[in-house]
Design a protein that fits this description.
Strand content: 15-25%
Oligomer: single chain
Structural class: alpha+beta
Number of strands: 9
Number of helices: 14
Largest sheet: 9 strands, antiparallel
Distance between the termini: 40 Å
Helix content: 40-55%
Order of helices and strands: EHHEEEEHEEEEHHHHHHHHHHH
Radius of gyration: 24 Å
Protein backbone atom coordinates (compact mmCIF):
# COMPACT_ATOMS: atom_id res chain seq x y z
CA UNK A 1 0.00 0.00 0.00
CA UNK A 2 1.26 3.54 -0.70
CA UNK A 3 1.45 5.65 2.43
CA UNK A 4 -1.30 6.60 3.72
CA UNK A 5 -6.89 4.46 3.59
CA UNK A 6 -9.88 4.71 5.72
CA UNK A 7 -8.67 4.06 9.26
CA UNK A 8 -11.23 3.25 11.88
CA UNK A 9 -8.52 2.48 14.44
CA UNK A 10 -9.66 5.49 16.44
CA UNK A 11 -13.39 5.02 16.06
CA UNK A 12 -14.99 7.83 18.03
CA UNK A 13 -13.96 7.76 21.65
CA UNK A 14 -13.73 3.99 21.73
CA UNK A 15 -11.17 2.77 24.20
CA UNK A 16 -8.41 0.75 22.59
CA UNK A 17 -7.45 -2.38 24.47
CA UNK A 18 -4.87 -3.52 21.94
CA UNK A 19 -3.25 -1.99 18.86
CA UNK A 20 -0.74 -3.02 16.26
CA UNK A 21 1.38 -1.11 13.79
CA UNK A 22 0.00 -0.70 10.24
CA UNK A 23 1.14 -3.34 7.77
CA UNK A 24 4.07 -2.52 5.45
CA UNK A 25 3.61 -1.60 1.81
CA UNK A 26 4.95 -4.99 0.71
CA UNK A 27 4.03 -7.77 0.77
CA UNK A 28 0.43 -7.08 -0.13
CA UNK A 29 -2.21 -7.55 2.51
CA UNK A 30 -4.12 -10.86 2.53
CA UNK A 31 -6.94 -11.47 0.02
CA UNK A 32 -10.18 -9.60 0.67
CA UNK A 33 -12.74 -11.93 -0.88
CA UNK A 34 -16.27 -11.07 0.22
CA UNK A 35 -19.81 -12.17 -0.58
CA UNK A 36 -21.26 -9.00 0.91
CA UNK A 37 -22.99 -7.51 -2.17
CA UNK A 38 -22.52 -3.82 -1.39
CA UNK A 39 -18.72 -4.14 -1.37
CA UNK A 40 -18.78 -5.75 -4.79
CA UNK A 41 -21.09 -3.03 -6.10
CA UNK A 42 -18.80 -0.21 -4.98
CA UNK A 43 -15.79 0.58 -7.13
CA UNK A 44 -13.22 3.10 -5.99
CA UNK A 45 -12.26 5.67 -8.66
CA UNK A 46 -15.77 5.63 -10.17
CA UNK A 47 -17.06 9.12 -10.86
CA UNK A 48 -19.79 10.75 -8.82
CA UNK A 49 -22.02 10.70 -11.90
CA UNK A 50 -21.60 6.94 -12.32
CA UNK A 51 -22.67 6.39 -8.71
CA UNK A 52 -25.60 8.79 -8.92
CA UNK A 53 -26.79 7.03 -12.09
CA UNK A 54 -26.86 3.74 -10.19
CA UNK A 55 -28.83 5.40 -7.40
CA UNK A 56 -31.74 6.54 -9.55
CA UNK A 57 -35.00 6.37 -7.61
CA UNK A 58 -33.34 6.59 -4.20
CA UNK A 59 -32.94 9.54 -1.84
CA UNK A 60 -29.47 10.78 -0.94
CA UNK A 61 -27.86 13.96 0.37
CA UNK A 62 -24.98 15.83 -1.23
CA UNK A 63 -22.77 18.01 0.98
CA UNK A 64 -19.29 19.59 0.91
CA UNK A 65 -16.33 17.56 2.11
CA UNK A 66 -13.40 19.96 2.28
CA UNK A 67 -12.55 20.71 -1.34
CA UNK A 68 -14.47 17.61 -2.46
CA UNK A 69 -17.97 16.27 -1.88
CA UNK A 70 -19.77 13.68 0.22
CA UNK A 71 -22.86 11.67 -0.69
CA UNK A 72 -24.86 10.15 2.14
CA UNK A 73 -27.62 7.63 1.58
CA UNK A 74 -29.66 6.30 4.45
CA UNK A 75 -30.75 2.68 4.74
CA UNK A 76 -33.28 1.64 2.09
CA UNK A 77 -35.90 -1.10 2.22
CA UNK A 78 -33.42 -3.59 0.75
CA UNK A 79 -31.51 -5.99 2.98
CA UNK A 80 -29.13 -5.76 4.67
CA UNK A 81 -30.03 -2.36 6.12
CA UNK A 82 -27.09 0.00 6.00
CA UNK A 83 -26.22 3.68 5.66
CA UNK A 84 -23.72 4.69 3.00
CA UNK A 85 -21.17 7.50 3.10
CA UNK A 86 -19.31 8.14 -0.16
CA UNK A 87 -16.39 10.59 -0.45
CA UNK A 88 -15.20 12.25 -3.68
CA UNK A 89 -12.07 14.27 -4.49
CA UNK A 90 -11.78 17.46 -6.55
CA UNK A 91 -12.01 15.41 -9.77
CA UNK A 92 -15.27 13.83 -8.49
CA UNK A 93 -13.68 10.38 -8.18
CA UNK A 94 -14.74 8.06 -5.39
CA UNK A 95 -11.83 7.86 -2.94
CA UNK A 96 -13.56 6.24 0.04
CA UNK A 97 -16.82 4.69 1.19
CA UNK A 98 -18.19 3.69 4.58
CA UNK A 99 -21.13 1.34 5.23
CA UNK A 100 -22.77 1.49 8.65
CA UNK A 101 -25.00 -1.35 9.79
CA UNK A 102 -27.55 -0.65 12.50
CA UNK A 103 -27.96 -2.44 14.81
CA UNK A 104 -25.38 -4.75 13.21
CA UNK A 105 -25.25 -7.37 10.46
CA UNK A 106 -25.17 -11.06 11.39
CA UNK A 107 -22.43 -12.60 9.22
CA UNK A 108 -23.77 -16.14 9.37
CA UNK A 109 -25.20 -15.91 5.79
CA UNK A 110 -21.83 -14.70 4.44
CA UNK A 111 -19.38 -17.65 4.56
CA UNK A 112 -16.82 -16.08 2.16
CA UNK A 113 -16.46 -12.95 4.28
CA UNK A 114 -16.28 -15.03 7.46
CA UNK A 115 -13.49 -17.09 5.87
CA UNK A 116 -11.62 -13.88 4.98
CA UNK A 117 -11.94 -12.54 8.52
CA UNK A 118 -10.72 -15.82 9.99
CA UNK A 119 -7.51 -15.45 7.94
CA UNK A 120 -6.79 -11.90 9.16
CA UNK A 121 -4.95 -10.79 12.27
CA UNK A 122 -6.86 -8.15 14.29
CA UNK A 123 -5.53 -4.66 13.71
CA UNK A 124 -7.08 -3.21 16.88
CA UNK A 125 -9.57 -4.17 19.57
CA UNK A 126 -11.98 -1.75 21.26
CA UNK A 127 -14.29 -1.63 24.24
CA UNK A 128 -17.49 -0.21 22.82
CA UNK A 129 -18.56 1.40 26.10
CA UNK A 130 -15.66 2.79 28.16
CA UNK A 131 -17.81 2.76 31.33
CA UNK A 132 -17.91 -1.05 31.09
CA UNK A 133 -14.20 -1.20 31.87
CA UNK A 134 -15.11 -0.93 35.57
CA UNK A 135 -16.65 -4.41 35.19
CA UNK A 136 -14.42 -6.07 32.60
CA UNK A 137 -16.33 -9.34 32.77
CA UNK A 138 -19.26 -7.60 31.08
CA UNK A 139 -17.32 -5.35 28.67
CA UNK A 140 -18.33 -5.62 25.02
CA UNK A 141 -15.46 -5.48 22.53
CA UNK A 142 -15.20 -5.04 18.78
CA UNK A 143 -12.31 -6.01 16.52
CA UNK A 144 -10.97 -4.08 13.53
CA UNK A 145 -9.72 -6.16 10.59
CA UNK A 146 -7.80 -4.74 7.62
CA UNK A 147 -7.11 -6.20 4.21
CA UNK A 148 -6.66 -4.90 0.67
CA UNK A 149 -4.24 -4.55 -2.23
CA UNK A 150 -1.42 -2.24 -3.30
CA UNK A 151 -3.67 0.82 -3.81
CA UNK A 152 -6.60 0.44 -1.42
CA UNK A 153 -7.66 -1.04 1.89
CA UNK A 154 -10.89 -2.63 3.07
CA UNK A 155 -11.73 -2.65 6.77
CA UNK A 156 -14.28 -4.41 8.92
CA UNK A 157 -15.29 -3.46 12.46
CA UNK A 158 -16.81 -6.62 13.93
CA UNK A 159 -18.61 -7.30 17.19
CA UNK A 160 -17.25 -10.60 18.47
CA UNK A 161 -20.28 -12.58 19.68
CA UNK A 162 -20.07 -16.07 21.11
CA UNK A 163 -22.15 -17.48 18.24
CA UNK A 164 -21.50 -15.57 14.99
CA UNK A 165 -19.62 -12.29 14.40
CA UNK A 166 -21.71 -9.17 13.81
CA UNK A 167 -20.53 -6.54 11.35
CA UNK A 168 -20.87 -2.93 12.59
CA UNK A 169 -18.96 -1.00 9.92
CA UNK A 170 -17.32 -1.88 6.59
CA UNK A 171 -15.17 0.58 4.70
CA UNK A 172 -12.95 0.85 1.66
CA UNK A 173 -10.67 3.66 0.52
CA UNK A 174 -7.67 4.55 -1.58
CA UNK A 175 -4.64 4.33 0.69
CA UNK A 176 -3.70 8.05 0.81
CA UNK A 177 -7.13 8.88 2.28
CA UNK A 178 -7.05 6.44 5.21
CA UNK A 179 -6.01 8.78 8.01
CA UNK A 180 -7.97 11.65 6.54
CA UNK A 181 -11.29 9.84 6.53
CA UNK A 182 -10.80 8.40 10.00
CA UNK A 183 -11.93 11.76 11.39
CA UNK A 184 -15.54 10.91 10.49
CA UNK A 185 -15.85 8.28 13.20
CA UNK A 186 -18.67 10.15 15.00
CA UNK A 187 -21.03 9.41 12.11
CA UNK A 188 -20.30 5.71 11.89
CA UNK A 189 -21.33 4.51 15.33
CA UNK A 190 -23.54 7.28 16.72
CA UNK A 191 -25.36 5.11 19.26
CA UNK A 192 -22.29 4.21 21.30
CA UNK A 193 -21.33 5.63 24.67
CA UNK A 194 -18.05 7.56 24.18
CA UNK A 195 -15.47 9.08 26.42
CA UNK A 196 -15.33 12.86 26.07
CA UNK A 197 -12.63 15.19 24.86
CA UNK A 198 -11.11 13.12 22.04
CA UNK A 199 -11.09 14.85 18.68
CA UNK A 200 -9.12 14.46 15.48
CA UNK A 201 -6.70 17.19 14.44
CA UNK A 202 -7.58 16.49 10.82
CA UNK A 203 -11.33 16.44 11.30
CA UNK A 204 -13.40 18.03 8.58
CA UNK A 205 -15.42 21.11 9.47
CA UNK A 206 -19.12 20.88 10.14
CA UNK A 207 -21.44 23.16 8.19
CA UNK A 208 -21.37 25.81 10.92
CA UNK A 209 -17.67 25.55 11.81
CA UNK A 210 -14.80 27.60 10.33
CA UNK A 211 -12.84 25.90 7.55
CA UNK A 212 -10.10 23.66 8.96
CA UNK A 213 -6.99 24.48 6.92
CA UNK A 214 -5.07 21.51 8.29
CA UNK A 215 -7.78 19.20 6.97
CA UNK A 216 -7.63 20.89 3.56
CA UNK A 217 -3.84 20.58 3.49
CA UNK A 218 -4.00 16.86 4.28
CA UNK A 219 -6.82 16.34 1.80
CA UNK A 220 -4.82 17.93 -1.01
CA UNK A 221 -1.76 15.90 -0.01
CA UNK A 222 -3.84 12.73 -0.35
CA UNK A 223 -5.13 13.94 -3.73
CA UNK A 224 -1.54 14.46 -4.86
CA UNK A 225 -0.54 10.96 -3.73
CA UNK A 226 -3.45 9.43 -5.64
CA UNK A 227 -2.43 11.24 -8.83
CA UNK A 228 1.34 10.78 -8.52
CA UNK A 229 1.22 7.06 -7.74
CA UNK A 230 -1.61 6.19 -10.16
CA UNK A 231 -4.06 4.93 -7.54
CA UNK A 232 -6.78 5.06 -10.20
CA UNK A 233 -4.65 3.39 -12.87
CA UNK A 234 -3.20 6.48 -14.55
CA UNK A 235 -0.36 8.70 -13.37
CA UNK A 236 -1.47 12.35 -13.48
CA UNK A 237 1.49 14.65 -12.73
CA UNK A 238 -0.45 17.84 -13.62
CA UNK A 239 -3.08 17.10 -10.96
CA UNK A 240 -0.33 16.06 -8.53
CA UNK A 241 1.50 19.38 -8.97
CA UNK A 242 -1.71 21.33 -8.36
CA UNK A 243 -2.61 19.23 -5.31
CA UNK A 244 0.78 19.41 -3.59
CA UNK A 245 0.98 23.15 -4.17
CA UNK A 246 -2.45 23.61 -2.61
CA UNK A 247 -1.42 21.36 0.28
CA UNK A 248 1.61 23.57 0.95
CA UNK A 249 -0.45 26.76 0.64
CA UNK A 250 -3.07 25.53 3.11
CA UNK A 251 -0.31 24.62 5.51
CA UNK A 252 0.65 21.34 7.17
CA UNK A 253 1.24 21.43 10.93
CA UNK A 254 3.67 18.54 10.88
CA UNK A 255 7.06 19.68 9.52
CA UNK A 256 7.98 16.20 8.29
CA UNK A 257 4.73 16.05 6.30
CA UNK A 258 5.43 19.54 4.91
CA UNK A 259 8.89 18.39 3.83
CA UNK A 260 7.30 15.39 2.14
CA UNK A 261 4.82 17.64 0.31
CA UNK A 262 7.75 19.60 -1.17
CA UNK A 263 9.49 16.30 -1.99
CA UNK A 264 6.41 14.90 -3.75
CA UNK A 265 5.90 18.19 -5.60
CA UNK A 266 9.47 17.85 -6.84
CA UNK A 267 8.74 14.33 -8.12
CA UNK A 268 5.64 15.53 -9.99
CA UNK A 269 7.57 18.45 -11.52
CA UNK A 270 10.34 16.06 -12.52
CA UNK A 271 7.76 13.89 -14.30
CA UNK A 272 6.74 16.99 -16.26
CA UNK A 273 10.35 17.71 -17.25
CA UNK A 274 10.58 20.85 -15.07
CA UNK A 275 13.98 19.91 -13.68
CA UNK A 276 15.18 23.23 -12.13
CA UNK A 277 11.81 23.61 -10.34
CA UNK A 278 12.01 20.01 -9.14
CA UNK A 279 15.55 20.62 -7.87
CA UNK A 280 14.38 23.62 -5.84
CA UNK A 281 11.59 21.60 -4.21
CA UNK A 282 13.98 18.77 -3.26
CA UNK A 283 16.48 21.25 -1.82
CA UNK A 284 13.79 22.99 0.22
CA UNK A 285 12.49 19.65 1.48
CA UNK A 286 15.99 18.88 2.76
CA UNK A 287 16.13 22.16 4.68
CA UNK A 288 13.07 20.95 6.59
CA UNK A 289 14.14 17.30 6.96
CA UNK A 290 17.83 16.95 6.02
CA UNK A 291 18.53 13.23 6.50
CA UNK A 292 15.90 11.49 4.39
CA UNK A 293 17.65 9.09 1.96
CA UNK A 294 14.77 9.18 -0.56
CA UNK A 295 14.88 12.97 -0.91
CA UNK A 296 18.68 12.99 -1.15
CA UNK A 297 18.55 10.27 -3.81
CA UNK A 298 15.91 12.11 -5.86
CA UNK A 299 17.88 15.36 -5.71
CA UNK A 300 20.82 13.37 -7.04
CA UNK A 301 18.68 12.04 -9.89
CA UNK A 302 17.50 15.48 -10.98
CA UNK A 303 21.10 16.81 -10.86
CA UNK A 304 22.28 13.87 -12.95
CA UNK A 305 19.56 14.66 -15.50
CA UNK A 306 21.01 18.19 -15.67
CA UNK A 307 24.52 16.76 -16.27
CA UNK A 308 25.80 17.67 -12.81
CA UNK A 309 27.22 14.20 -12.27
CA UNK A 310 29.85 15.09 -9.68
CA UNK A 311 27.26 16.57 -7.31
CA UNK A 312 24.86 13.73 -8.09
CA UNK A 313 27.47 11.12 -7.12
CA UNK A 314 28.07 12.88 -3.80
CA UNK A 315 24.35 12.81 -3.05
CA UNK A 316 23.94 9.11 -3.94
CA UNK A 317 26.90 8.32 -1.66
CA UNK A 318 25.33 10.39 1.12
CA UNK A 319 22.03 8.51 0.74
CA UNK A 320 23.91 5.21 0.99
CA UNK A 321 25.74 6.29 4.14
CA UNK A 322 22.32 6.82 5.70
CA UNK A 323 20.92 3.57 4.26
CA UNK A 324 23.52 1.14 2.85
CA UNK A 325 20.90 -1.28 1.47
CA UNK A 326 19.06 1.45 -0.52
CA UNK A 327 18.91 -0.39 -3.85
CA UNK A 328 17.70 2.50 -6.00
CA UNK A 329 20.45 4.82 -4.79
CA UNK A 330 22.97 2.03 -5.42
CA UNK A 331 21.72 1.73 -9.02
CA UNK A 332 21.80 5.51 -9.54
CA UNK A 333 25.35 5.70 -8.18
CA UNK A 334 26.51 2.92 -10.51
CA UNK A 335 24.87 4.61 -13.50
CA UNK A 336 26.57 7.92 -12.70
CA UNK A 337 29.98 6.23 -12.33
CA UNK A 338 29.92 4.41 -15.69
CA UNK A 339 31.78 7.11 -17.65
CA UNK A 340 34.44 7.95 -15.07
CA UNK A 341 34.98 4.90 -12.83
CA UNK A 342 34.09 1.72 -14.71
CA UNK A 343 35.47 -0.73 -12.14
CA UNK A 344 33.56 0.89 -9.29
CA UNK A 345 30.41 1.10 -11.43
CA UNK A 346 30.63 -2.67 -11.94
CA UNK A 347 30.97 -3.21 -8.18
CA UNK A 348 27.95 -1.01 -7.46
CA UNK A 349 25.82 -2.76 -10.10
CA UNK A 350 26.73 -6.15 -8.63
CA UNK A 351 25.84 -4.93 -5.14
CA UNK A 352 22.52 -3.68 -6.50
CA UNK A 353 21.76 -7.12 -8.00
CA UNK A 354 22.47 -8.78 -4.65
CA UNK A 355 20.09 -6.37 -2.90
CA UNK A 356 17.16 -6.89 -5.28
CA UNK A 357 17.44 -10.61 -5.92
CA UNK A 358 13.95 -12.14 -6.06
CA UNK A 359 12.07 -8.81 -6.06
CA UNK A 360 9.56 -8.92 -8.94
CA UNK A 361 9.00 -5.14 -9.08
CA UNK A 362 12.72 -4.67 -9.87
CA UNK A 363 12.68 -7.08 -12.82
CA UNK A 364 12.98 -4.46 -15.61
CA UNK A 365 15.86 -2.66 -13.94
CA UNK A 366 17.57 -5.98 -13.16
CA UNK A 367 17.50 -6.87 -16.87
CA UNK A 368 19.03 -3.49 -17.75
CA UNK A 369 21.78 -3.97 -15.19
CA UNK A 370 22.63 -7.45 -16.49
CA UNK A 371 23.04 -6.03 -20.02
CA UNK A 372 25.14 -3.12 -18.76
CA UNK A 373 27.45 -5.45 -16.84
CA UNK A 374 28.05 -7.49 -19.99
CA UNK A 375 29.00 -4.31 -21.87
CA UNK A 376 31.19 -2.92 -19.09
CA UNK A 377 33.02 -6.23 -18.67
CA UNK A 378 33.58 -6.47 -22.39
CA UNK A 379 31.24 -9.42 -22.80
Amino acid sequence: MVPGILALCLVGGLTACGTSAPPPSYPMLPPSASDLPLLGDTRLCDTKQQIVNRWQGTTYHLMPWGSGEQLQRSAQSTQPDHDRFYFFDDEQRLVGAVFRFAPGLDLKPYPVLRETLSALEPSSTFYLDPTQLIHRDHATSAVLYRTGDHTSTTQYLVLENEDEPVLLVASMALDPYEQLLSSYHEKYLPGLNRSSGRTSKASAPSSDAPLNLDFLGLQQFARGETALFASCGLKQPTIAVDAYRQSIQHGLKDEARLAEAHHRLGLALQDQGQLPDAQREFEYALTLNPNVPEIINNLGRVLAQQRQRKLAIQLFERALVLRPNFAEARFNLAESLEQSHVRRAIQEYETYLALVEGLPWEEKRINRVVERLKRLKGG
